[in-house]
Amino acid sequence: MGRELTFCQNVERSISKKYRKTIWNPFIKAIKNYDLISENDHVAACISGGKDSMLGAVLLRMLKRYSDVPFELSFIAMDPGYNEENRQMIEKNAALLELPVEIFVSDVFDIAYSVEKSPCYLCARMRRGHLYAKAKEMGANKIALGHHLSDAIETVLLSMFYGSQIQTMPPKLRSMNFEGMELIRPLYCIKEDDIISWKNYNGLQFIQCGCRFVEDSDKGVGDSKRKEIKELIRSLRKNNPDIDNNIFNSLHKVHIDTFPGFKSKGKDHSFLERYWEYRVQDGGTFFEK
Q: Residues 122, 124, 130, CA angle at the centre, nearest 5°?
């Protein structure tokens, strides 16, 4: 008779068995395809308290155990001003999943809450800055966030519909304010519906949103533009089950020569700059001479 597994071991087992194709394999794909972790990296897994960052922390711990590439791993969580219930839930889940997380306090919510213009943008920038600073203090050179495939494709549509531009979040980027620090997104190839399925299968409950603006709002997150985009994708999926993958794959196959304008390194460019370097084939495909 085999030994009885702990709750945490069963959670990890569900990832390696039941969710191998939908969570573990896409996780490994992102690590390899985007070169997210290198030998002797020190990665700080940032835990917000939601399902995504908690899963990311568990996946990184499993990777450290099985990977041939040696790297250090730490777990950090920032309390930007959560209410007591949310703070306790983060602590409870960290203990349940056996994550030795270091929680530190900041005044991000107080500062962001006091401004009228773009409080969400300010909050996000400040939170990331605090995470970079804490990670660097611990000797880490990378922070890992919980953004996933669904976040990436939703951001594309949000930027088009409401920002009059086409952009998304890359799988990794270098910090402009913290030298030698990088941000990585290990869940980049994992769909949110699969994360929700994993959460429900294991009977896990995470904080939904600790944002003070949502708590104080009568409308709350239900009226957010991101939820509107989620519902749009869900409706399109009824007739096209591959819609998520199609949007995601399109991010890797951008035909920049067919765009009338684009921005690179903060500078706007027009197709006219290189117009005479190209000829047009029937169908509108551009080729260099």
A: 100
> Would you state the pLDDT for residue 216?
47
Q: How far apart are CA 272 and CA 287, in angstroms?
A: 15
Extract the tokens encoding 144: 């890992």
pLDDT tens-digit map of 195-222: 999 999 999 999 976 565 554 443 334 3
pLDDT, residue 109, reads 76
Alpha-carbon gap, residue 252 to 236, rounded angstroms:
21
pTM > 0.70: yes or no:
yes
DSSP at 71: -
Q: Residue 71: which residues within 8 A CB-CB, separation 6 or more? A: 37, 38, 39, 40, 41, 42, 43, 64
CA atoms within 13 A on the CB side of 180: 10
At position 30, the amino acid (one-letter code) is A
pLDDT in tens, 81-101: 888 999 999 999 999 999 999
Judge whether 37 and 71 are in contact, CB under 8 Å.
yes
Distance of CA 60 to the CA centre of its chain: 14
Beta strand pairing status for 142-144 and 42-46?
Answer: parallel
Please give the structure tokens belonging to residue 83.
């209410």
What does the DSSP assignment read for 16-75? HTTTIIIIIHHHHHHHHHTT---TT-EEEEE--SSHHHHHHHHHHHHHHHH-SS--EEEE
Whether the per-residue pLDDT at 143 is higher than 90: the answer is yes
Determine contact, residues 105/79, Cβ cutoff 8 Å.
Answer: yes
Backbone φ and ψ of 162, nearest 5°: -120, -10
| Residue that is written with structure tokens 């960052």 in the block | 53
What is the C-alpha separation between 238 and 182, in angstroms, rounded?
Answer: 38
Cα 44 to Cα 273: distance, rounded to the nearest angstrom = 43
Cβ partners under 8 Å of residue 110, min gap 6 = 81
Please give the Cα distance from 284 to 245 (Å, whole number). 25
Q: In whole angstroms, give the CA distance from residue 209 to residue 4.
A: 34
